[in-house]
Automatic annotation (TrEMBL):
Ranges for domain Amidase: 28-443
Family, as annotated: Belongs to the amidase family.
Source superkingdom: Bacteria
Protein name: amidase
EC number per UniProt: 3.5.1.4
UniProt keyword list: Hydrolase
A GO MF term: amidase activity
Enzyme class at the top of the EC tree: hydrolase
InterPro entries: Amidase, Amidase_dom, AS_sf
Stored SUPFAM superfamilies: Amidase signature (AS) enzymes (SSF75304)
Signal sequence, start to end: none
Classification via PANTHER family: GLUTAMYL-TRNA(GLN) AMIDOTRANSFERASE SUBUNIT A, MITOCHONDRIAL, TRANSAMIDASE
Length: 463
């Protein structure tokens, strides 16, 4: 196995290699540092790469490995999205409006370190994690490893680009209205939005008015399951998530739908519909019962519930910035929208979540999993929305990504499974949505699809 093969091997396989002595933790870290220095000049997945600090962590991990210590991620490098606190490193949120470095790790980072992970760096985001593209005035644009003229997506664009380009085996993302699933789709990697409260959000509890969660972006389903095993705060499936992913799923009843949620404007592209049609054929071949059935999306769901929560969450977030005057104009525009939503209105909006979850979730009275396109179309070109305001940008980008945000509002888990490439060589995916707290079924089904249609060996041209 050469250095490139090792870089693309994934976190779980690297953990096994470290235990077997196939590679050392310092050598694995050096491999990624070398690749980042060479490849990330074009991709710009990282806002900052940790060097000496990471080397010290890798050296300590190797000493523990040599002493016979065994932890799930001991010595494995992990990239962290730049909206998550790493002690003594700036959390910039894609902006120059940020404050001083935090003095402590976020709880999810603490748990990753406890499992033995080496923190490799912090990945790029759009300002305040607002957009399905990763471009900022403060730090520039991140590019898609499959097509450098296009965005990797957002807001976890740097995390997805890093994993896709072989610049990290696993990356932490956050997902408030699709921010893990969108870039994972367009970068051709596996992305999982866990059940709300599955992964700890401390010290940013209730982020985006309860819409946002932390989750993994990985090369394999096993890697995502491993992430859940070391960060989970809730009841786990029998034997843990890695065991659940490895189990063959029972015969499932699966609904497919290309319906765009009511009041949203958009059209599903040919490649995205083809992926959904292909999923139907494959799932039938795998023995599952497959039917076409649309969820009951209320007319008020997006503009009366999801977006007001997002806007108010943006407003609340910018109130904690020491230099809000440095924010980009369209960020300030969306924050102003959030400022008109009073606490009383917000309470009323959030009280409707149970009704929304019941209506959308009613499809699970009769099926085990819902499958939709990962996105409606492919990614925008870098700079395509550069001179637009906040509202017009939102209106234009929403048509590309209509299938994701609704499930942030309901809180249930959802994952995107890489499917193939469109006519322009950019990845497409299908989105798997599960019952509340049922990541186990999503992981098991995703692994079954992965076995039938392997994707982890695909490498983008830039790699």
């Amino acid at each position: 196995m050469d250095s490139t093969d090792i870089a693309f091997a994934g976190a779980a396989e690297q953990a096994r290699m470290l235990v077997a002595g196939t590679i050392t933790a310092p050598a694995l870290l050096d491999l990624y540092h070398e690749r980042i220095a060479r490849v990330d000049r074009e991709v710009r997945a990282y806002r900052v790469v940790l060097t000496e600090r990471a080397r010290a962590e890798a050296k300590a991990a190797q000493e523990r490995l040599a002493a016979g210590e065994r932890l799930p991620l001991l010595g494995v490098p992990i990239a962290i999205k730049d909206d998550v606190d790493v002690a003594d490193e700036f959390t910039c949120y894609g902006s120059s409006a940020h404050g001083l470095p935090p003095t402590a790790d976020a709880e999810v980072v603490r748990r990753l370190r406890e499992a033995g992970a080496v923190i490799l760096g912090k990945t790029s985001v759009p300002e305040m994690m607002l957009w399905p593209f990763t471009e900022t005035i403060a730090f520039g644009a991140t590019h898609n490893p499959w097509d450098l003229d296009r965005t990797p997506g957002g807001s976890s664009g740097g995390s997805a680009a890093a994993v896709a380009a072989g610049l990290a085996p696993m990356a932490l993302g956050s997902d408030g209205v699709g921010s893990i699933r969108i870039p994972s789709t367009w970068c051709g990697v596996f992305g999982l939005k866990p059940q709300r409260d599955r992964v700890p959000m401390d010290p940013h509890e209730d982020a985006r008015c309860g819409l946002s969660v932390y989750g993994p972006i990985t090369r394999t389903v096993e890697d995502a399951a491993l992430f859940l095993d070391v960060t989970n705060t809730q009841k786990a499936p029998r034997g843990g998530f890695v065991a659940a992913a490895a189990r063959k799923p029972k015969r499932l009843r699966i609904a497919l739908s290309a319906k765009i949620p009511t009041t949203m404007v958009g059209r599903v592209g040919r490649a995205q519909q083809k992926a959904l049609d292909g999923a139907e054929l494959l799932l039938r071949d795998l023995g599952h019962e497959v039917l076409w059935r649309d969820p009951d999306y209320p007319a008020w769901a997006v503009y009366g519930h999801v977006l007001p929560r997002m806007w108010r969450g943006i407003y609340d977030d910018v109130q904690h910035l020491p230099h809000p005057e440095r924010l980009e104009p369209r960020t300030r525009a969306l924050a102003r929208l959030g400022s008109v939503i009073s606490d009383r209105q917000l309470d009323k909006i959030r009280a409707a979540e149970a009704t929304l979850a019941t209506r959308v979730g009613s499809i699970f009275d009769d099926v085990d999993v819902l499958i939709t396109p990962g996105t409606a179309t492919g990614p925008s070109r870098v700079g395509q929305y550069q001179h637009r305001g906040g509202v017009s940008t939102l209106a234009l980008v929403a048509s590309r990504v209509p299938f994701n945000a609704i499930f942030n509002a309901t809180g249930q888990p959802a994952a995107v499974v890489p499917w193939g490439l469109d006519d322009e060589g950019v990845p497409v995916s299908v989105q798997l949505v599960g019952r509340p707290s049922d990541e186990a079924t999503l992981l098991s089904l995703s692994h079954q699809i992965e076995t039938a249609r392997p994707w982890a060996g695909r490498r983008p041209p830039v790699s």
